[in-house]
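Table S2 (continued). Query chain:
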Amino acid sequence: MNAAEPMLSIQGLTVSYDGIAAVKGISFDALPGEIVAIVGANGAGKTSTLRAISGLTPWGGSIVYQGESLRGVAVHQIVERGIAHVPEGRAIFGDFTVMENLRLASWVCRSRPVLWQAMERVFTLFPRLKDRREQSAGTLSGGEQQMLALSRALLASPKLLLLDEPSMGLAPLVVRDIFRVLVEINRAGTTILLIEQNAYQGLRIANRAHVLETGSIVLSGRGSELMQDQRVKDAYLGG
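Corresponding output:
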């Protein structure tokens, strides 16, 4: 794939539930090495967009990843192609230890050396998890659970990381730490598609961003530009 070509190209994406449109023909690209943010209120269609890319919900339109359509591709094959999804709510296994959660996510790793290299990477990014590796995941703090959810995704060594509301329910200092790590992950070469209700955090780190309202993209631009847009300030940044 040419570096100038999109890693991910979405054209006319639609998602409906029981005949009600949640995503209404949106189009956007993510270039290799970018952080692309989609911000918007609850119910805007953000989560549905990620679920379509991951193959978790039926969709219409076109989703092309690294030059190949994802239509009809099974969820596990999408992961194998290099797309990892950290869902809203984290979806960790609370009764399992941190290490057991990580081992469950390690099926993508084809060799033990690759697995241990990936494990070392996540423990470097999140040293608190290393200290708690034999602790039940359900007893972790909300921030630590988000770190675990991110770590599971990183074990797949993804080229494209899909993040759904990583700041949700977290204290401001924890949010700052999570977003600092996201920038590190991106700088190491992972393209990130970030869905965020916290518009300030999403726009602050994004190369490009889109504002989604009731299933439609209403504004697009560089993250820094949208932070200065009065409409965005009024609606999402407290004026």
